[in-house]
Amino acid sequence: MTAAVDDDLWSAIGDPMRRRMLDLLLAEGNGTATSLSERLPVTRQAVAKHLGVLDRVGLVHGTPAGRERRYRVDEAQLARAVAQLSAVGAAWDARLRRIKRIAEAIQRRQDQQ
């Protein structure tokens, strides 16, 4: 059985900078593009673009806070991403076990010849 994978979600969390941003938001509870850019080696504009990607896939939600938006991680969506990662990992583990069994069977046949 193949795990259902949300490619947009995985693409969003596949970027190392966005993962760092998620880590910061989780640690601090929330943040703005300005507050995050002060802690990251990218511009505020770059942070804002990354937050837009994370918002589109539902990993964060922004609410107006003066002239900015304050972002908070959507823990349910993050849990969904973790569940997908776990399911895909389990599927690959099963594939690798099958490959190993096949390789061992081939090796046994060659040893018997």
Topology:
Elements: H1 7-14, H2 16-28, H3 33-37, H4 44-56, E1 60-65, E2 68-73, H5 75-112
Identify the notable features of this structure and list them briefly.
113 residues, mainly alpha, two-stranded antiparallel sheet, elongated
Describe the structure.
The protein is mainly alpha-helical and 113 residues long. The chain is 68% helix and 11% strand. A hairpin with a 2-residue loop joins β1 (60-65) and β2. It contains five helices and two strands. It has a two-stranded antiparallel sheet with strand order 1-2. The mean pLDDT is 90.
Give a nutshell description of this structure.
The protein is built from 5 helices and 2 strands. With 113 residues, the chain is mainly alpha-helical.
